[in-house]
Each structure stands twice: as C-alpha cells, then as structure tokens.
Amino acid sequence: MTAADTRVADQPPVFSVRNLWKVFGPRAERVPATPELAELSPEALRERTGCTVGVRDVSFDVRPGEVFVVMGLSGSGKSTLVRCLTRLIEPTSGSIAIDGEDVCAMDRNALRELRRRRAAMVFQHFGLLPHRTVLDNVAYGLEIQGVPKLRRRAKAAEMIEKVGLSGMEGRRPAQLSGGQQQRVGLARALAADPEVLLFDEPFSALDPLIRRDMQEEVVRLHRDEGRTMVFITHDLAEALHIGDRIALMRGGRVVQCGTPEEIVGSPADDYVRDFVRDVPREQVITVRRAMRPATLAEARGSSGPTVAAGTTVAEAIDVVARDGSPARVLDDGRCVGIVDFKCLLRVVAGLEGPGRLEKAAA
Ligand SMILES: Nc1ncnc2c1ncn2[C@@H]1O[C@H](COP(=O)(O)OP(=O)(O)OP(=O)(O)O)[C@@H](O)[C@H]1O
Q1: Residue 22 has what pLDDT?
Q2: Residue 362's pLDDT is what?
Q3: Which of 32, 93, 210, 357 has the most CB atoms at less than 10 Å from its CB?
Q4: Can you give the residue ranges of the ABC transporter domain (predicted)?
C-alpha cells in the first residue's frame, strides 16, 4: 500500500454495507434469520421455501474517491446488490450506510434525495427522452430538482463538454450513436453532481471500440474529479482496467474483494484462480510484488534505471530490457527493492509469490 492508498483507506467510507441479504420470494426474511435455511443450497432453498437468494451475507466498504467494481457472471447478484445500495431493491436484512447515515431508515423524501443528488445511477439503457435535445436531456435531472432554466442550461453545457459531446447540444437521441447516447446519460448523471455514481453495466451494449473509449472516459473523469464510482460489470478485462478495487461475486456472495493485483496475484480460492487464469499477469502485477530485496550496495547505489513501486511488471520489463541491468524500485524516493530479469519473468510465468516456485516444481 502506498501512502496515498493508506490515506484513502483511513477516511470514513462513503458506503458501508454489513451482512446484507436480499432474498426474493414468500416470507423472505425468515431465510437469513434461520441458520438451517440460510445454509441450504439454492435448489434446496427454492424447493423448501420458494425463495431465491440474490445477495447472501455481503459486507464491504466503498471508500471515498475510488472506483469500486462489482464483478461476476450473469446471475451472481451484481445488479441486486447495487440496487440495494439506494433501495431501488429493498434489502431483506443487514445494514447500509452512506456517509454514516442509515439508508434503511430513510423515508421517501430522503430516498429521493439520495438517488437524485447523492448516489445517481447510470443504466445500460440510458432512458433518454427522444423528443428532447441533448442539452435538454442533460438538463432534465436539474429541471426536476427545480434548478432555474439559465443555470441548468449552463451546467448542462458544461457537462456536455466534459464528456466530449460539444457541438451536439441540439441533436436528438436518435441522431446519436450508442456510445454518444451513453455519454449523454453520463453527462445527465454528472449534472446533478452526485457524491457517488453507480453504473449498471453501462457499456455492455456498445461495440468493443466504443466501449474502450467509454472506459477511458470513466478513468479520465475519475482521475480529473476523484468522484467515487461503483461500477457493475461481468467483463473481467473491464473490471481490471477501471477498478481500484473489485468485489468478485458468485451465487450472491462476495468471494473476494481486493485490488486487481490482489485478485490476480493472490486469488482467494480455486474459483477466483480459474476466473483470472487467462489474465496477462504482467499487466496487472506491480513491481512491488515482483521485486527482491536490494543488497546494501544496490540500495545505496545511484546508477542504473529506476521504477516507481506502482509500475506494472510489463512496464518494468521494458525498462530493464532497454537498459540491460536491474532496476531499483523507488517508493517516496527510497529504494525498497530490485527487479531483475529473473523476478520479472517469474511473474510472467505465474511463479511469483511465496511457495509458488516450489509448488510448480513439485
Ligand atoms: N425480482 C426477482 N425475483 C426473483 N429472483 C430474482 C429477482 N431479481 C433477481 N433475481 C435472482 O437473483 C439472482 C441475482 O440476480 P442479479 O440480476 O442481481 O444478477 P446479475 O449478476 O446482475 O446478473 P446479470 O449480469 O445477468 O444482470 C439471480 O438468481 C436472479 O434470478
């Protein structure tokens, strides 16, 4: 963890979720309350009670300024979980807080305020109003908040510029590509200036090139504004690309929650290991994990290349290969280790980390 990571981790969470359950079906609340039922397999539970578990005993925090990705295969519970955060779906049990405030205790007005101003959702189907222009679509959220016309139009124009749609203010949604429509949806959500943006698979209907473009847009917005984002996807590459941390779901549970590097480098179980098997490790693992301790002479030396501790192994390979000598790994200007050909190649071969080499040799 870098000093900056520690600072973020120390701040109070934006969302704090504890032991959250969502069970669909008759008398759903008895399922989490009855250990015997809670432990049944999905099939047995359905047979005995007619209930389906969408989210099963999930706990996590979303920290200020991070992109928190909820990832998993179809049916794993992603949408249910994220909809519970603002009670678009009513949780069955457990607790949810936003900035320390109990979401489950909010009345209708507070919930409306929560969804409009504090945690705005960007859906895959962006729900644009077909007869309105781009400008009016973006301004719509502000209109229902009662913001005066001139002010909301100025704000909308600013957001349109931010998402790269300048010049298209007067078009109608039908005159835009899918990617451009998604940008309008994004600008509309941003116009309300919410503390958190919740994205429900926003790019899954887009073709791969436009999808990549939109991912870059999210990364850029996040970098420029530091806005907290919760992002649902079933696409591992997308999760690894944009996520600061990823919660990987299976059967309603979070099976692992961690940075892309933790998920790829230290999978919690065989399911996660299988899930990340084809990921190009060198693009995710950083030199902090790959490095070996520096000798005294190396730590004191000042010759040869250097890389920052957050550099990926792929980038470090480039540096070390060009220079031909090991690189010193620097954190806050201090040498914390060395990466040479051997330790970099061990990552590519999937052998880094304690015991991996021995296991492979066995
Ligand atoms: N209204 C509902 N009634 C009954 N079961 C539901 C309901 N909504 C979702 N489920 C079930 O809850 C589980 C989780 O569904 P959810 O839609 O959250 O998954 P997901 O990971 O978002 O899937 P996808 O990627 O396909 O959207 C599934 O088994 C689903 O069938």
Answers
A1: 98
A2: 38
A3: 32
A4: 40-276
Instruction: Quote the ligand 1 centre to 78 CA distance (angstroms).
Output: 8
Cα gap 204→227, rounded to integer Å: 22
Q: Looking at 116-177, list the stretches that DSSP marks H as alpha helix, in order from N- to C-terminal side.
A: 134-144, 149-162
The Cα 339–Cα 329 span in angstroms is 7
- 42 CB contacts (<8 Å, ≥6 apart)? 52, 53, 251
User: Quick check: 69 and 237 in contact, CB under 8 A?
Assistant: no
Establish whether residue 123 lines the binding site of ligand 1, counting it when its CB lies within 6 angstroms of any ligand atom: no
The closest alpha carbon to 134, from 164, 175, 163, 169, belongs to 169
Q: pLDDT (tens digit, 9 = 90+) per residue, 275-285?
A: 999 999 999 99
- Whether residue 54 has its Cβ less than 6 Å from ligand 1: yes
- Give strand ranges (E) for the chain: 15-24, 52-62, 67-72, 93-98, 101-102, 119-122, 196-200, 228-233, 245-250, 253-258, 306-308, 327-331, 334-339
The pTM is what?
A: 0.87
CA 218 / ligand 1 centre spacing (Å): 26
Residue 79 near ligand 1, beta carbon < 6 Å: yes
Q: Do residues 156 and 139 lie in contact, with contact meaning Cβ atoms separated by under 8 Å?
A: yes
Q: How far is the CA of 77 from the centre of ligand 1 (A)?
A: 6
Token pair listed for 264: 């790829």
Question: With a 6 A CB cut-off, is 77 part of the ligand 1 pocket?
Answer: yes
| Residue 215 token pair | 């991912």
CA distances (Å), 322 to each of 196, 286, 315, 351, in order? 42, 18, 11, 23
Question: Is the minimum distance from the CB of 52 to ligand 1 under 6 angstroms?
Answer: yes
**What domains appear along the chain, each with residue ranges and CATH number?**
64-280 (3.40.50.300), 282-361 (3.90.1280.20)
- What mean pLDDT do residues 174-181 have? 88
